[in-house]
Specification:
Blueprint lengths: L4 H17 L24 H4 L1 H20 L2 H22 L3 H23 L6 H24 L3 H16 L2 H9 L1 H20 L2 H23 L3 H22 L2 H29 L4 H17 L2 H9 L1 H20 L3 H19 L37 E3 L7 E5 L4 E2 L4 E2 L4 E6 L8 E2 L19 H9 L9 E6 L4 E6 L9 E6 L1
Parallel strand pairs: 2-5, 4-9
Antiparallel strand pairs: 1-7, 2-3, 5-7, 6-8, 8-9
Helix pairs in contact: 1-5, 3-4, 4-5, 5-13, 5-14, 5-16, 6-7, 6-8, 6-10, 6-11, 6-12, 7-9, 8-9, 9-10, 10-11, 11-12, 13-15, 14-15, 15-16
Length: 510
C-alpha cells in the first residue's frame, strides 16, 4: 500500500527539518563533541543515509557559490544541476517509502517550472536583438564599400566587401538570420557576392544595385530579428552614416577616409559588437530562451528519472497528463505561446501526479483532473497490457547484420548524435532505453534532392507526426529502424515524442 497524503506531508517536513538541522550531520544542540549532539543511531541524516549523494551535493553547492562569484554562468548551471540530482538521490535514501520521495521529486520539478515562468516574464532584450545589431553594422559597412569604390579605391572596396562576407560566415548572426528569414539570408549573401564582383569590374550601376540588394535584405532580417526594436537600430544606422559623411566631408582625403572606415569597422566589429552581446548576456539575454532550456532540462531529466516509472505504475492517466503538459510548456516557451497558462497547467499536472503517487487520486480536486492523454503514449494502452504502438515497413526486429552503422536510441538522446557515413551506407537506429521512439527527418533539415525518411515509412515530416498520433512509426524494445542514405549532405532528424526534451540528431553523408 502506498503512503497516505498525511504520511507524505510528515515525511516531507521531516526531510526539510533533517536537511536544515542535519545538513552537516549535527543538530542545533551542539557539535559532535558537545552535549546535545544528535547520536547517529537516533536520527538519520543525509550524510548517513547516502554518503555519496551527500558529498556530491555538498561539493556541488560549494561549486555553485564559487562559480557565481566568478561570474561563470555555465559552471553555475552545471553545478546546480549536479546538486539537484544529488538531492533527489538523497531523498530516496531518506524517505520511508519510494512513493514519498517520488512525490517530493515531482514537487521539485513543479518548482523548476515556476522558476522558468518567472524567468520568462522578466522581459528585456533578447539575443536576437544583438544579432540584428550585428546586421546593422554590416549594413553600414556595405555603404562604406560603395563610397570607397566611388572614390577610386577599388582594391580596398573589394576587400571590404569580402571581409563582410568572411566575417558573416563565422558570426553568431549567421545562423540567426538564416532561421529568422531564409530569403533575406540568401539575398544578403548573394548581394555581397554581386557587390564584390561589381566593384572589381568597376560597374557603378551594378554596385548600386548590389548595395540596394544587400540593404533591403538586411532590413528584412533586422526587422525579423528585432521586431518592435528594429527602429532603434534603424536610427543607429542613420547616425553612423551621418557621422561618416561628416568626417569624410571635413577631411576630404580618400586615403584618410579609407583608413577611418577601416578603423570604424574594426572597432564596431570587435569592441562594440562584443559589447552588445556582453550587455545582453549580463542582462539575462533572451529570458524566454533560458526559460525554455530550464523546462527542456526538466523534461529530459524526467524521462530518465526513477519517478518516471513510479508515476506510470501508479496512474497511467496522471503520468500521461504530466508528460503532455510538460511538453506543452516547452512548446509554449519555444513558440511564443501563453507561457503563464502553460506553467499553470504543468503545475496542476504535477499536483495530479503527486496525488497519484500517494494513492490519493480519489481526493483529487476536480479542477486538477486533466484527463485526456493519448492512448499508447508511453507504449502501453490505457488499460495496460501490450503496446498500442506500431512500427512500419522500415522497423524490423533486432539489428540487421548488413547495417553499416548502429545508433542507440536512449531515453532522450541518440548515441552517437552525429555519425558520419558514406553514400550507400545503411544505418540502424536500435531501441536502447526509455519509452518508444521515432526517427523522423526534418522537412527543412535534409539536403536538396533527398527524400524524406522516417520510421513508419512516411513520406513527409507532417505525415510522420500525424502517424505518431495514430500509433504508427514507433521503435520499441527489440526493434530497429533502418535507412540507407543515397544523398550526400547533412540530414537532421528528431524523435517525435521526445523532441521537446531535446532528442535530435544529425547524420553527415559524405
Amino acid at each position: 500500500m502506498r503512503p497516505s497524503r498525511r504520511d507524505l506531508l510528515a515525511a516531507s517536513a521531516a526531510a526539510v527539518a533533517t536537511g536544515v538541522a542535519g545538513c552537516n550531520g549535527r543538530s542545533e544542540g551542539g557539535t559532535d563533541d558537545e552535549p546535545g549532539a544528535t547520536e547517529a543511531s537516533a536520527t538519520t541524516t543525509p550524510s548517513s543515509a547516502d554518503r555519496e549523494a551527500y558529498e556530491t551535493f555538498e561539493s556541488a553547492v560549494e561549486a555553485v557559490a564559487s562559480a557565481a562569484g566568478e561570474g561563470d554562468a555555465d559552471s553555475v548551471r552545471t553545478s546546480a544541476a549536479r546538486a539537484f540530482d544529488a538531492a533527489i538521490t538523497g531523498s530516496y535514501a531518506l524517505a520511508d517509502a519510494e512513493a514519498t520521495a517520488g512525490a517530493g521529486h515531482v514537487a521539485a520539478l513543479q518548482a523548476r517550472g515556476w522558476d522558468a515562468a518567472a524567468l520568462a516574464s522578466m522581459g528585456g532584450p533578447s539575443t536576437a536583438f544583438a544579432h540584428a545589431a550585428a546586421l546593422t553594422i554590416y549594413r553600414a559597412r556595405t555603404y562604406d564599400a560603395r563610397w570607397l569604390a566611388a572614390r577610386g579605391e577599388t582594391d580596398r572596396a573589394a576587400t571590404m566587401a569580402g571581409d563582410v562576407f568572411a566575417h558573416f560566415e563565422g558570426a553568431r548572426a549567421h545562423e540567426a538570420l538564416e532561421a529568422a528569414s531564409g530569403e533575406a539570408y540568401e539575398g544578403f549573401e548573394a548581394g555581397l557576392a554581386e557587390l564584390r564582383s561589381a566593384i572589381e569590374s568597376g560597374d557603378e550601376s551594378a554596385i548600386d544595385d548590389a548595395v540596394a540588394t544587400v540593404d533591403s535584405n538586411l532590413v528584412t532580417g533586422i526587422e525579423a530579428l528585432a521586431g518592435a526594436n528594429a527602429p532603434l537600430l534603424e536610427a543607429a544606422f542613420f547616425r553612423a552614416r551621418f557621422a561618416d559623411a561628416r568626417e569624410l566631408y571635413r577631411l576630404g582625403r580618400n586615403d584618410v577616409a579609407a583608413s577611418i572606415a577601416q578603423r570604424l569597422f574594426q572597432r564596431f566589429n570587435g569592441e562594440a559588437l562584443a559589447s552588445i552581446y556582453a550587455i545582453v548576456g549580463s542582462g539575462g539575454g533572451s529570458h524566454t530562451e533560458a526559460a525554455a532550456a530550464v523546462v527542456q532540462d526538466v523534461f529530459a531529466g524526467f524521462e530518465a528519472a526513477r519517478v518516471h516509472e513510479l508515476i506510470e505504475d501508479a496512474d497511467h492517466n496522471a503520468y500521461g497528463t504530466f508528460e503532455a503538459q510538460l511538453e506543452a510548456y516547452v512548446t509554449a516557451l519555444q513558440e511564443g505561446g501563453d507561457v503563464n497558462a502553460a506553467a499553470a497547467s504543468f503545475a496542476s499536472a504535477a499536483q495530479y501526479a503527486q496525488f497519484a503517487l500517494v494513492d490519493g487520486v480519489e481526493k483529487l480536486p476536480l479542477d486538477l483532473d486533466l484527463a485526456g492523454t493519448v492512448s499508447g503514449r508511453s507504449g502501453t494502452s490505457e488499460g495496460g497490457g501490450e503496446s498500442a504502438l506500431q512500427g512500419g515497413p522500415n522497423v524490423v526486429d533486432g539489428v540487421p547484420d548488413d547495417a553499416d552503422h548502429v545508433v542507440d536510441t536512449n531515453a532522450v538522446a541518440y548515441d552517437p548524435a552525429e555519425p558520419t557515413v558514406s553514400t550507400g551506407d545503411t544505418v540502424a537506429w536500435t531501441y536502447a532505453a526509455g519509452e518508444p521512439h521515432s526517427v523522423t527527418a526534418y522537412r527543412d533539415g535534409i539536403p536538396d534532392g533527398a527524400t524524406c525518411w522516417a520510421s513508419g515509412g512516411f513520406d513527409s515530416e507532417e505525415a510522420a507526426r500525424s502517424g505518431w498520433e495514430n500509433g504508427r512509426g514507433a521503435v520499441q524494445s527489440g526493434e530497429s529502424f533502418v535507412h540507407t542514405f543515397e544523398t550526400t549532405g547533412t540530414h537532421e532528424y528528431f524523435c517525435i515524442p521526445h523532441e521537446a526534451a531535446g532528442m535530435v540528431g544529425t547524420v553527415v553523408v559524405e
